[in-house]
Design goal:
With 343 residues, this protein is α/β, with parallel strands linked by helices. It contains eleven helices and 17 strands. The mean pLDDT is 96. The structure holds zinc ion (ZN) (2 copies).
């Protein structure tokens, strides 16, 4: 089998290794599609320098073979593949927040190369990392299982209610997934997005209005569109520290701000601590997902009611992975760049 190994910043080699055999409780998955996320971009640019590594944690594939003691999947089935390792032993795992497992990025591939392994034709996983979807589900949709699971966690943690007036900051793929999952569950949803094409896409996908965060007062625009009221819940799905300050400035008393996106290291925000006491505004965040969130994501994908095709815009075969990573890093693609390791 071929797999792409990142060995140094901006250096990727495609190598050939034996196809691994699934042992007890494990399955061999043929990777159909693997979407490129921020983690892979950071490995590629050297922002996270852990080499050698086989990236690729957003995987949709087909079960090729199973080892003894596998009950949930069988050969030929389409699956969403979870990428994080969860040790089951650390304090976070024992507290039921395995998304925060101390060892979550320490998964090893055969031959002891690190990484989640989606940039290869096959990968081995414990059966508990596999979430089946129906045969009629397009296989590329399964590759968005991981980001959808992250959004599921974000929405669950925000505990939105039907009365919520929601703002989603950012109409990138994560903002648009929030929009699709929240639509119909809350009273109104605004999207904050300066790029006119992205804003138009958010309106097509059901946003009730757009706020331009770089023009005029953000809080005034939010209030104007919510009939004079502030937002009760904002999801910050853009890697900009100011978006967190903007969100707090436009949050109603008792409301909350969910920091979904990672923001560059060393960023700071300035908040008057009285927003917590006098106004009971909660500022919190979310990262990754638990197996339960993956289970929910697979169910959402299987339902067919998410509009995922517009979010997967650029496809590359394994031999062109360097181009694919460059396209993702340089934001040449409109939304997700997707690898097809079998091609
Ligand atoms: Zn991801
Ligand atoms: Zn753990």
């Amino acid at each position: 089998m071929r797999r792409a190994v990142i060995t140094a910043p901006r250096t990727v080699h495609v190598e050939t290794v034996p196809v691994p055999e699934p042992g007890p409780g494990a399955a061999l998955v043929r990777v159909g599609y693997c979407a490129i996320c921020t983690y892979e971009q950071r490995l590629y640019t050297g922002y996270i320098a852990q080499y050698p590594i086989v990236g690729g944690h957003e995987v949709g594939g087909i079960v090729e073979a199973v080892g003894p003691g596998v009950y949930n999947v069988k050969p030929g089935e389409k699956v969403v593949v979870a990428g994080l390792y969860r040790c089951g032993q650390c304090d976070a795992c024992r507290r039921g927040v395995s998304n925060l497992c101390e060892y979550r990025w320490s998964r090893r591939q055969p031959g002891q190369v690190g990484g989640p392994g989606g940039f290869g034709e096959y990968l081995l996983r414990g059966a508990d990392d596999l979430f089946p979807v129906p045969q009629e589900t397009p296989l590329h949709h399964a590759a968005l299982g991981e980001p959808i699971a992250c959004v599921v966690r974000s929405v669950k943690k925000a505990a939105t209610k039907p009365h919520d007036r929601v703002v989603i900051a950012g109409a990138g793929i994560m903002g648009l997934l929030h929009l699709q999952i929240l639509r119909g569950r809350v009273s109104r949803i605004l999207v904050s997005e300066p790029d006119p094409e992205r804003a138009a896409r958010a309106l097509e996908m059901g946003a009730d209005g757009i706020v331009n965060p770089v023009e005029g007062s953000y809080a005034d625009q939010v209030k104007e569109q919510f009939g004079g009221l502030k937002a009760t819940c904002t999801f910050v799905a853009v890697s900009v520290a100011k978006a967190v300050e903007d969100a707090v400035s436009a949050t109603a008393d008792g409301g909350r701000v969910m920091c979904y996106a990672a923001i560059p290291k060393g960023s700071t925000v300035t908040l008057d601590p009285n927003v917590f006491h006098h106004h009971e505004i909660a500022v919190t965040g979310t990262v990754s997902q638990t197996p339960e969130d993956f289970h929910d994501a697979a169910a959402l994908i299987a339902s067919g009611r998410l509009n995922l095709d517009p979010l997967m815009t650029d496809y590359y075969p394994l031999g062109r992975i360097q181009e694919a990573l460059e396209a993702a890093v340089n934001r040449k693609a409109a939304y997700r760049v997707v690898m097809e390791p079998g091609k």
